[in-house]
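Predict the 3D structure for this chain.
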Amino acid sequence: MDNPYIITWLILGAVLVVSELFIPGGVVIFLGVSALLIAGLYTLGISISILDSIFIWLAISIFFVLVIRRFFKKFWPSEEKNEESSFSEMAIGKLVRVVKRITPENSEGRIFHAGTSWPARSEKDEINEDEYAKILYRDGTSWIVEKTGKKITEDLWEI
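Done. Predicted structure below.
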């Protein structure tokens, strides 16, 4: 271990692996493992320049992040919810105003939800303008709704 690069790569690798505990995401750990592999190359007596070792480290890191990380994410999915799914989950079951007629046959219908107009479809009901619909789920950018039978009146305008 008389090569200073061994110590440098070992320290860098250890710091990056441990920092994964504080910066989760499955990226930093692969950078650290790559650095430890470079230290291993030097330990085996493979003579490479510092510039070559940096390029090898980058190549191994990119491989780990793009290929190996995807493999691990299948077995350890993120516990974090994205905002999009939370927005959709909060909308399920809400009553919304139909602003353009909704039919099962076309995707031209629109609802007013969260301060804007959204595309909407119904699986089985025809829902006219100025009626309320209940949100069932979201499919891409369209909301799937069902008929409630409630007409819009002055008292119920803001839900």
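Residues 83-151 form a domain with the OB fold (Dihydrolipoamide Acetyltransferase, E2P) fold (CATH 2.40.50.140).
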